[in-house]
Amino acid sequence: MENRYGRLASWVYNLDKPVGRSFGDVEYYRQLLGECAGPVLEPAVGNGRILVPLLKAGFAVEGFDTSEEMLGYCREACRTHDVAANLTRRRFEDFAYDRKFAAIIIPAGSLQLITDAAAASAVLRRFHQHLLPGGKLVLDLDAIDGFLGPSGALRSWTTEEGELLTLMDHRVETDYIAQTTLSHLRYEHWRSGNLAATELDLFKLRWWGVEEFALALCAAGFTDVVVSGNYQRGRRPRKGDQVVTFEATRPASGTA
Known about the structure:
Elements lengths: L6 H10 L8 H9 L6 E4 L7 H6 L4 E5 L2 H13 L6 E3 L11 E6 L10 H13 L1 E12 L2 H4 L4 E6 L5 E12 L4 E12 L2 E13 L3 H10 L3 E7 L13 E7 L7
Parallel strand pairs: 1-2, 1-4, 2-3, 4-5
Antiparallel strand pairs: 5-11, 6-7, 7-8, 8-9, 10-11
């Protein structure tokens, strides 16, 4: 996985998507996990935007992330909200636990950070191996429209100290065969009108077709695939939806 959230990228993410902010996903995952009895794993946990509200709701959730900076924000959020979670630095490609989970959740399209289709399929099999029989994998994918829209946007955030953070997003490559986009994300930190720090992230993502990903889940051993659009559970995705959510089950008759 080529992408890694560094210091400025993590700072911007935490300002833009603070813990507790919901796009409809916090409520969606909270309701869905009410049907699952047992521990929950959130890979690519980020700053804890989803994890902390679920912990406060009483779910036994733990998470991992490849970015130590993001994990730092997540640990701080857990302390601020007086909740505890096992948080570790791991990668999608080689994470391993000595126990299995009732559910694995991946909100916010994080699986699309894996840009090689074969590698993504291997990760789906790893998820399957880490689920209890009858356990559920639930994840979001961004709709293809979001990959192919305009680029070159400039965004900015002001910190509590009055300092300025900016992000310039410029897409430099679209590979229609590999189904990937490559963007240059330039983060800048400004203090008193002077550039204090800058960071360039070569940010690559892969898009999936709805039926393509459903087939990939089945190939990884999952059954009972449910696909929903814009957090309306059970409603098939349609044109204009921004988020597509997949639910898939490890068969109860599978090997534990």
